[in-house]
Amino acid sequence: MKVLSGALALICAALAVHADNVANVHVDTGGSAVIQLTDSNFEKLTQASTGSTTGPWFVKFYAPWCSHCRQMAPAWERVAKELKGVVNVADLDATRAPNVAKRFAIKGYPTLILIDKGRMYQYKNGERTTENLVAFATTEYKKTISSPVPAPLTFMGVIIDFLITGVQEAQRIYDVAFRGFFVISSFSLILGLLLGMICSIIALAKNNSTLHAAKTARTTRKQD
To answer: Mind telling me which residue stretches traverse the membrane in this protein (predicted)?
Structure first.
């Protein structure tokens, strides 16, 4: 009985911790209603792969240097406040969370994705106003085509992706260097040919001048 009681106590404690974590999802961060997501907390908070207990998430993938991202920040904050308790509204800095950005194949900023029950819906059309974004997150997303949420990158997947990226970058550098070498070599060859032609012309002119002077001297001696 003591063992059973201890096991039940551990289960209850684990459930309490889990419930506390879920509740903390809705706590404002730094006075903002927008939740900050990272590589380390994304799956834990959103449960994007299963969508089991945390509810829908409306995530803005952004970059700090993106002017459009900065311009929509006030509207995004209003969206978070209006949807609080209904939809979790979050920011994810793709430059500091590269694994999640690669997982969702983020190519441009801002990218707005609603995640609900293992499916994702991207906001593509329409102005990024508070009204449009709230409408999309609550009802309009159902009218768009959804796709399954991609699985989290595994450790091996991260390593493979790193290697592939490294090979692609090395290939890019090689291509740029090869093109640069080809251009420089071609320019050097053409310049060398031009200089050679100029030197040949100068040498030929000097030789003709010397021959002409010698011929003139012989003619003068004959006349004498």
So the answer is: 181-205
